[in-house]
Write a structure and sequence with these properties.
The protein is α/β, with parallel strands linked by helices. It is 57% helix and 10% strand.
């Protein structure tokens, strides 16, 4: 069964499965998920905890022996297995499957690591463990989900505050939930049991948001112009090389053009070959409703000119040009407006 992190504590209150999978690229979510399982496991009598890391030199018989050895200090034990690559390999898969054949009520196995794709999630060992237990994907929260997470942590302290404070903390730390947790802990030291207003919040919270080119592209595909400007401003402040964004924009133009041509010819779209996963397909199809052959052509020319400019000279304000290019993909009618790339 797949769970969201905010569902984990409630499920743990009911019962614990023999296997828990925690994978994702958001460290704060991973820490929170591990801490939640550990806390409830201890309450359930899993008093002994073993931690193993399946690196290149790992002996998989160690895991097998750990599941079969009675603890000297407790009837139940929690075994945590860290997969640094997210993949156990051929030998590891065999061992994990053999363990899954005879799960023990006295052994709870937690496997965690980085974000894993469909290639891992579709393997036999992963499906077996998810079917018999829980899979908690850990990813960075955004928008309303992030604000709800911030509000929940502030309530737990407790701090009484308003929605504008919650939104400010979320905005200041978006893309960096580990820093958000640290900022909220700091607010707890200053205002625990009291009331927090926006003036106090702005004075205490440090700007620590982090964004990636992938988030920018998703925002562009969604047509959110205001957020495009915000993300580009933050990426510029972090010193991201403009050529990285140009490369990403060219790639998205090529993907959109390929999908458009397949649709016009009545051909099947191989989303997997295009590396467009299920949750993103709707963004592409919705955006393409706004595209015409003329729009494709104008964006192509603009990207070509900008790419040449960035590779051969240094524009005075490169991120102004990048913002213009990103907005060309959105349905705001900028095709008739040109910027000088000289």
């Amino acid at each position: 069964m797949q769970l969201r992190l905010n569902q984990l504590a409630t499920q743990c209150d009911n019962s614990l499965p023999p296997f828990v999978l925690i994978f994702g690229d958001e460290p704060q979510q991973t820490i929170q998920a591990l801490d939640t399982v550990r806390e409830h496991a201890l309450k359930a009598g899993f008093a002994e905890r073993q931690s193993l890391t399946a690196d290149a030199d790992f002996d998989w018989s160690t895991l097998l022996e750990a599941t079969q050895t009675m603890s000297l200090f407790s009837d139940k034990q929690l075994i945590e297995l860290h997969l640094p690559t997210g993949k156990p390999g051929k030998e590891g898969s065999k061992v994990l499957l053999s363990i899954a054949e005879q799960p023990s009520a006295d052994v709870l196995i937690v496997i965690y690591g980085p974000r894993v794709g469909k290639d891992v999630q579709n393997t036999k060992w992963f499906k077996t463990y998810q079917s018999a237990g829980w899979f908690i994907p850990c990813f960075a929260l955004e928008g309303r989900d992030l604000e709800n997470w911030v509000a929940q942590l502030l309530q737990q302290i407790p701090i009484h505050t308003t929605q504008d404070c919650i939104a400010f903390v979320a905005d200041a730390c978006e893309g960096n939930m580990l820093a958000a947790k640290q900022e909220i802990d700091k607010l707890g030291l200053l205002y625990a049991g009291g009331t927090l207003n926006i003036k106090q919040c702005k004075a205490a919270v440090v700007e620590q948001s982090r964004y990636t080119v992938y988030q920018l592209i998703d925002t562009m595909l969604a047509g959110d112009a205001q957020r495009i400007v915000k993300l580009l401003f933050r990426l510029e402040s972090e010193g991201l090389e403009p050529n990285i964004i140009i490369w990403a924009l060219i790639k998205e133009w090529e993907t959109l053009y390929t999908i458009d041509q397949l649709q016009r010819n009545g051909e099947r779209i191989n989303w997997t070959a295009l590396r467009v996963w299920g949750n993103k397909q709707g963004l592409y199809t919705d955006l393409l409703k706004q595209f015409t052959p003329q729009k494709f052509a104008s964006i192509r020319v603009a990207l070509k000119e900008a790419d040449f400019q960035f590779k051969n000279t240094q524009p005075t304000r490169p991120y102004v040009l990048l913002c213009h290019l990103c907005l060309l993909f959105t349905p705001y009618g900028l095709d008739e407006f040109t910027l000088s790339y000289a």
